[in-house]
Write a structure and sequence with these properties.
It is built from 4 helices and no strands. By secondary structure, the protein is mostly helical.
Length: about 130
């Protein structure tokens, strides 16, 4: 099937398809990832607050995008936004898997790396939304 004019960018997009474990229980990959992380327990109140901020910023960014930007974007701009959002979630997911599976570093190092990744993603979403 040929690609419609204006959608050629889709062939070059680095789109991440979230794994099956992040497809449920709700239709939001970010919320499902947060549920997984919070379900682990014993990661501390600071971690729980940070995950709450991740969900809050994710949802705020989604609302902003649909209200302020969705209709103004060309197909390539829309695609870039969607791909970047999925790549941010992928970074958090991979840091989470590293913590959970113990692939690199000590537990404390992996937890700090996960928290730093979540904070960076929060900052990126906020900057995109606020223009800062």
């Amino acid at each position: 099937m040929p690609i419609p004019p204006g959608w050629e960018w889709i062939e070059d997009a680095d789109y991440w398809e979230a794994p099956e474990e992040l497809q449920k229980p709700v239709p939001s990959v970010d919320i499902n990832l947060a549920i997984k992380m919070l379900s682990r327990g014993s990661l501390g109140n600071d971690f729980n607050v940070l995950v709450g901020q991740f969900i809050s910023e994710s949802q705020t960014s989604t609302i902003w995008f649909h209200a302020a930007k969705g209709g103004e974007l060309s197909p390539p701009e829309l695609g870039r936004h969607l791909v970047e959002g999925r790549q941010r979630t992928r970074r958090v997911y991979e840091a989470w898997r590293n913590l959970d599976e113990g692939r690199e570093g000590t537990w404390d190092d992996r937890l700090l790396a996960l928290m730093a990744t979540i904070q960076a993603v929060i900052d990126e979403m906020r900057a995109e939304r606020t223009g800062g």
